[in-house]
Specification:
By secondary structure, this protein is α/β, with parallel strands linked by helices. It has three domains: 6-84 and 222-303 and 414-471, FAD/NAD(P)-binding domain (3-Layer(bba) Sandwich), CATH 3.50.50.60; 115-202, protoporphyrinogen ix oxidase, domain 3, CATH 1.10.3110.10; 305-412, Polyamine Oxidase, Chain A, domain 2. Helices cover 36% and strands 23% of the residues. The protein has helices at residues 15-26, 66-75, 106-111, 117-124, 126-129, 140-148, 150-165, 174-177, 179-187, 191-202, 224-234, 278-287, 291-300, 346-349, 378-389, 418-429, 447-463, 467-471, and strands at 6-11, 31-34, 46-49, 52-55, 61-62, 81-83, 91-95, 98-101, 216-219, 238-239, 242-250, 253-260, 263-274, 305-316, 328-330, 342-344, 358-366, 401-412, 435-437. The strands form four sheets. Strands 1, 2, 10, 11, 12, 13 and 19 form a seven-stranded mixed beta sheet that branches. It has a seven-stranded mixed beta sheet with strand order 8-7-15-16-17-14-18. Bound molecules: flavin-adenine dinucleotide (FAD). Flavin-adenine dinucleotide (FAD) binds next to helix 1, strand 11, strand 14, strand 18 and helix 17.
Length: 474
């Protein structure tokens, strides 16, 4: 009899793969995780340099999924949460060459300077002007314009979408990117009137459970500390420097071939979980040579991703005149004055990310707005940043630290039709036994979403008969 090396192989050690392996291991399953890089984490990695903490991808997490909360709780003393500082609530938009504070609530929305009088009147007229969507899958831009007017849609929603997806609100699907907002849009003509009725409809209903971590958090040592802690918890189940090159379907499972430091090896397994970025997932699906796997790969090939460069710039405190009190600012896509997508005041949000006498800025370049900027080298990007940010942030000296991280396929873009495509993929997957997909190209790009998808996938997997069940005919 062909003995398997393990029951589950997870391919890819980013947060999606790590969370999948974690939940499988918690369910008592025999799992191996193969990661091609020398370290786990994928884009959730942190560099430590000259007293700075340099996040290479994500910068903060919003923990909304109870199972994610549980995972972080299970890691116990191995990780320590760092909540965002109080100033992080203050956010800005770059408008007409100035930084305009984003309103903290609906009332200040009407007194703030970021909307014209016409824009404010259109906002107030939402109960009269708003309409239900014409189609089933509107874009975020169409939704925002229909409810709140073009000015709000472009300046606020447009900038927010750039901040989360690096994308274009006029091309992204509301339903796929913000599912709960999509549901409200389909059900209620006016979101304003719906909002007013919520407290009345809540009377007598149980309160939502209290969340342990509210708001944005990071961790002592950065987000990379969480990736490392999960990997430590998984112990020998994790193998780094192992790049999976092909997957072969065998009668009762799969043979996964990988290159371990240049040496070709293979593992027999019953289940395969693809937790790689979308491009590598398509390649591995093609290597399987089955008709269904090919069809899934072809569906995935239609998902575009945008490139992003994160430019971490460290400054002496005395070289920045601006007080940097706040989270930073986003640049609406219609603004011509700045080439960048936004700038986070990283050391104001998480003071441990820079030595006490330094500031750390995180500048985002590329995205759907200026993808060609991702091709520029560090010197060119730093020169552009200094040129465009000098007056705005009162920069008086050059950065003492420059670090860049480039993501050629940073964030998958969910265009209208995405939700339907994911439904088709799930339908196709149901006829490929024991093959599973997790990752940010399916149902949510945030870390919280990746962990939620991992948990849901594991729940489905552990509900399937195990190998022992199959052998005993159970
Ligand atoms: C610049 C940037 C900023 C972001 N900011 C935030 C933020 O602030 N908050 C937030 O919640 N989200 C943020 N996100 C989104 C979030 O970080 C990602 O969606 C998430 O980390 C993706 O995790 P993943 O495990 O699906 O993929 P990845 O992190 O890409 O991991 C995939 C892993 O698979 C491995 N792999 C690939 N091919 C193979 C192979 N053949 N064999 C073995 N291993 C392989 C890779 O080496 C990698 O380690 C950001 C993303 C980017 C790019």
């Amino acid at each position: 009899m062909n003995r398997r090396n393990c029951e589950y192989v997870v391919i890819g050690g980013g947060v999606s793969g790590l969370a999948t392996a974690w939940y499988l291991s918690k369910a008592g399953r025999d799992v191996r995780l193969l990661e091609k890089n020398p370290a786990v984490g994928g884009c959730m990695r942190t560099l430590h340099q000259d007293g700075f903490l340099l996040e290479q991808g994500p910068f903060n997490v919003l923990v909304r999924d109870p199972a994610f909360e549980q995972l972080l709780g299970d890691l116990g003393d191995d990780i320590e949460v760092e909540p965002a500082g109080p100033d992080a609530k203050m956010r800005y938009l770059y408008l007409g060459g100035r930084l305009v504070p984003l309103p903290s609530g609906p009332a200040s929305l009407l007194t703030s300077r970021f909307l014209s009088t016409m824009g404010k009147m259109r906002l107030l007229a939402e109960p009269i002007c708003a309409r239900l969507p014409k189609g089933d899958d509107p874009t975020i831009g169409e939704f925002a314009t229909r409810h709140f007017g073009a000015e709000f849609a472009q300046n606020v929603l447009g900038a927010f979408v750039t901040g989360v997806f690096g994308g274009d609100a006029d091309r992204l699907s509301l339903k796929a990117c913000f599912p709960s907002l999509g549901r409200l849009d389909r059900e209620y003509r006016s979101l304003f009137l719906h909002g007013l009725s919520v407290p009345i409809r809540r009377i007598g209903k149980p309160k939502n459970p209290r969340r342990r971590w509210k708001g944005l958090i990071n961790f002592v040592g950065g987000l990379g500390a969480v990736s490392d802690a999960i990997a430590r918890g998984l112990g020998n189940a994790v193998s780094t420097n192992c790049e999976v090159t092909s997957i072969e379907h065998r009668s009762e499972g799969y043979c996964v071939t990988y290159s371990a430091s240049g040496v070709s090896q293979s593992l027999d397994t019953r289940h395969v979980v693809l937790a790689t970025p979308i491009g590598q997932a398509i390649g591995l699906l093609e290597s399987m040579a089955g008709e269904r796997a090919g069809q899934i790969g072809a569906l995935l090939a239609s998902v575009e991703s945008v490139p992003l460069v994160v430019l971490n710039l460290g400054f002496r405190r005395e070289d920045i005149g601006h007080d940097l009190k706040g989270f930073g600012f986003l640049v609406p896509p219609t603004e011509e004055g700045l080439s960048f997508l936004g700038v986070l005041w990283a050391s104001s949000i998480f003071p441990s990310h820079a030595p006490p006498d330094r500031h750390l800025l995180r500048v985002f370049a590329g995205g759907a707005k200026r993808p060609e900027l991702a091709q520029k080298n560090d010197g060119e990007l730093v020169a552009l940043a200094m040129d465009e940010l000098r007056d705005l942030l009162e920069l008086r000296g050059d950065p003492v630290l420059v670090n860049s991280c480039r993501h050629a396929h940073a964030v998958p873009q969910y265009y209208p039709g995405h939700t339907e495509m994911v439904r088709c993929i799930r339908a196709q997957l149901s006829s490929v036994p024991n093959l599973h997909l997790v990752g940010n190209y399916l149902e949510g790009v945030s870390i919280n979403d990746c962990v939620r998808q991992a948990r849901e996938t594991v729940q489905k997997m552990v509900a399937l008969p195990t190998e022992a069940d199959a052998r005993s005919g159970g």
